[in-house]
Design brief:
Blueprint lengths: L6 E2 H8 L3 H9 L14 E2 L1 H16 L7 H11 L9 H9 L5 H17 L4 H17 L3
Antiparallel strand pairs: 1-2
């Protein structure tokens, strides 16, 4: 991910029309960021922040608690109206790697969201299918 996509806490607050204290609260709630050196602002990716907010809102509606930042991002992408060709595991892993999230955590978040979506409207077979895909891809992940 190109560092030109990263913005400061103040720039992110301006983009989302909120106060910096809101951004700090989101960060404490799990919004992924690249921590700044002492005296420097954390760096945020606006796109990842958007997906995190959407996922956090869905999680709240579904009464899902204690989700990781990656799980919220994946949930947001899963429930958003995205063409299936845009929402694949390799793109997701590459996308969030730019803020320092590793492959294993990315795979786990992606399949967590797929499992939630499958479990909320599909059969047990769908959930098992995503569990098998997760296991297979986890074996290929660089640990």
């Amino acid at each position: 991910m190109n560092s030109t996509f990263l913005v400061s806490q103040q720039e992110l607050a301006d983009n989302f029309g909120v106060d910096r204290t809101t951004i700090r609260a989101w960060t404490k709630q799990g919004l992924p960021c690249i921590e700044g050196d002492r005296g420097k602002s954390h760096q945020y990716h606006p796109g990842i922040t958007m997906w995190w907010r959407v996922g956090a809102q869905y999680a709240e509606k579904m009464k899902l608690r204690n989700l990781t930042g990656v799980q919220c991002i994946a949930l947001g992408r899963e429930y958003a109206d995205i063409d299936a060709t845009e929402h694949n595991i390799d793109d997701f892993v590459t996308y969030i790697a730019g803020i320092g999230i590793g492959e294993v955590e990315a795979y786990a978040g992606f399949y967590f969201a797929r499992g939630i979506a499958a479990g909320r409207g599909s059969s047990v077979a769908s959930v098992q299918k995503y569990r098998q895909e997760f296991t297979k891809n986890l074996a290929h992940a660089k640990v």
